[in-house]
# Entry
Amino acid sequence: MARLRKGLLLVVSGPAGVGKGTVNAALMAKHPEIKMSVSATTRAPRPGEIDGVHYFFKTKEEFDRMIGENAFLEYMQVFGMNYYGTPKSFVESEREKGNHVILEIDVQGAMKVREACPDAVLVFIAPPSLKILKERLVGRGTETQESIDVRTATALEELKMLPKYDYMVINDVVEEAVGEMEAILTSELLRTERNTNLIMKLTGGETV
# Structure
C-alpha cells in the first residue's frame, strides 16, 4: 500500500568545522530524494553561480516585498549589508513532491524555523569533543589563532542549544554520521502523525 505523505524538512546545525557540509553532501549522494534548500540573497552573483541553483538572487526591493508577504521561513542581514533568507515556496514545493529538504543553518535561524514550521526536524551535528573540533579548525590551515579561539568559544555556546534540538549526531566517522542521519529519516517517516492518509485507509476512513 502506498504511503501518501509529504517530505521532511531537516534543519541541520553545528559548529564551524564540524563537517555539516560533508555529512549532508554524502547523505544526498546516497539519496536523490533529499534536496538542499536554496536561499534567497540580495548579494550579487559570483562567477559561476546560477540563479535558482546556488541562490535565488533578489534586489533589496524584491527581498523587502517577500518579507512583507511573510514569504520566508527565516531571514537575516549579515554584517549589516546583504540579506539572506529561506523561501517558504521552495521548501514547500519540494516537500509536496515527497522530497526531503535539508536546511543547513545556524542555531538562531533554526529556532526561527521551528516557530514557522513546527513539523521541522532539528538535527545538531556535534564534534566528538571541543579538542577535536579545534584540531580540525587548525588542520584547515586557513584560520588564524584568534579566529580559531573565537570559533571554539562560539561552538561552546552553540552546544548549549543542543537540548532544543530533536536529535544529536556525533560526526567522528562521516559514514557513521550519515548512517545516523538515515536512521533519523526512517524514524521520522514512521511517525503516525506523518502517515495520516495510510491510517485512514487502513481504518476504512477517507483520505485527508
